[in-house]
Amino acid sequence: MGSSFPREASGTQVASASTSTSTSPRARRPSIAIAGAGFSGAVIAHELANAGCDVQVFESRAHIAGNCHTERDADTGILLHAYGPHIFHTSNPRVWDYVRRFDEFIPFTNRVKAITGGRVYSLPVNLLTINQFFGTTLDPRDAQAFLAAKAEPGIGEPHTFEAQALRFMGRELYEAFFSSYTEKQWGRHPSELPASVLRRLPLRFNYDDNYYASTWQSMPRHGYTAIIGKMLDHPNIRVHLGQRFTREMRTGYAQVFFSGPIDAWFGHVEGRLGYRTLDFTAERHDGDFQGNSVINYCDNSVPWTRIAEHKHFAPWETHQRTVIFREHSRDCGPDDTPYYPIRLAQEKSLLAHYVEMASAERGVCFVGRLGTYRYLDMHLTIAEALDVAHRYRAAMQRGETLPAFVVNPLSS
Ligand SMILES: Cc1cc2nc3c(=O)[nH]c(=O)nc-3n(C[C@H](O)[C@H](O)[C@H](O)COP(=O)(O)OP(=O)(O)OC[C@H]3O[C@@H](n4cnc5c(N)ncnc54)[C@H](O)[C@@H]3O)c2cc1C
After folding, report:
1. Does residue 124 have a cis bond before it (omega within 30 degrees)?
2. What per-residue confidence (pLDDT) applies to 12?
3. CA distances from 17 to 21, 240, 252 (A)
4. Would you tell me which CATH number, out of the four given (1.10.10.10, 3.90.190.20, 3.40.50.720, 3.40.930.10), belongs to the domain 14-107+218-270+342-411?
């Protein structure tokens, strides 16, 4: 991948970073510590380095780019999305202009398929899915009336995923595409999940099978790690790989940006916020394994939720071999990589405690998907990181401090 950002061995940099605020010739520059080299940390680091700050980035893993990390497979040369498939999409022109400063973005449309009951269907559920599933040739208006007639009676304002599904698509589609898949994904029955989880999934009465409705949808030619490598490749930035940043290390920095888990900052004193984690089992095959980048497996007789075939995320490349990841979801243990925040009532009440504790911190801003315990796509992560950096610069000029959160983690 060849990113040329400076690397430091772990264990020795904190003291020098801290003392640099008072002893180095650059002592008058604000010294910034950033925990995490994902998009949140890298964008803030880049922006503040450009503004003249000295930036120390600490990353607990052995690589940059967080969960967006991409790397070439040594056997096949295929670009792998190490923590699961990442498709870039945005309708925000500022974010779109920004990311294209770091790589060429090649148009890509995410078209997912689903296997249920031994047959393959188009996703998200659209007119083709409905007509294939019911063996009909309905037009958009008739399809709406058809599904409306299938709505289960007696459901008022739906509060759960299951009630929402039964009300808007009826039992057959719900059981075929959502019930078991959702339970595999979240480890909870859809009757325990909020209706908002289903509301995020589109249901279309036309033949549009493009997963995202964003203005721009693309893949970076060289992958996300190359982009983040370029962001961090700056004379004012030092990256410390394999070094976890802790609360005790904040002394001496003008400002800390923490993109690690908010509960970890406080040593989990109030308990652990719940996440789902993913296990990937990789396989290599000849040729084309499944003919598509992602296929969901909706039946509970299949243990994995989906299979991603990575060469299809870079259709401009040619590879004779192929790499697939079977994806399994489970609750996240203390030593696992956190992926999806669960954010049910119990977690939100715990989160409220941590938000209160964090709000009492001075000089620490909690950012990103782990720092604010929210699921955030990349474009939102980047937009928020740009906003955080902008606000910090403005606060510096006014001699003010930044609040612990730029976005209230409890509001969404
Ligand atoms: C399976 C999956 C698929 C996804 N697919 C898409 C997609 O298709 N499109 C899309 O737009 N978005 C997608 N996303 C979301 C995307 O991954 C996030 O938007 C992005 O990773 C958020 O960046 P971040 O920097 O906030 O967090 P992260 O990428 O998690 O980076 C945080 C970093 O902080 C490090 N860290 C944690 N604690 C510490 C500490 N104490 N000290 C030092 N370092 C620390 C971690 O090791 C990590 O590298 C997906 C997410 C998942 C889980």
Report:
1. yes
2. 29
3. 7, 11, 8
4. 3.40.50.720
Q: What is the pLDDT of residue 28?
A: 60
* Structure tokens given for 207: 């033949």
Q: Which residues of the chain have pLDDT under 50?
A: 1-27
Q: Domain map of the chain by residue range?
A: 14-107+218-270+342-411, 112-199
* Beta-carbon count within 10 A of 196 CB: 12
CB 239 within 8 A of CB 5: yes
List ligand 1's pocket residues with C-beta within 6 A. 35-41, 58-61, 66-68, 84-88, 244-245, 259-260, 264, 278, 339-340, 368-370, 376-379, 381
- Count CB atoms within 10 A of the CB of residue 411: 8
Percent of the chain with pLDDT over 70: 92
Measured from the Cα of 243, ligand 1's closest atom is 43
Beta carbons of 69 and 83 less than 8 angstroms apart: yes
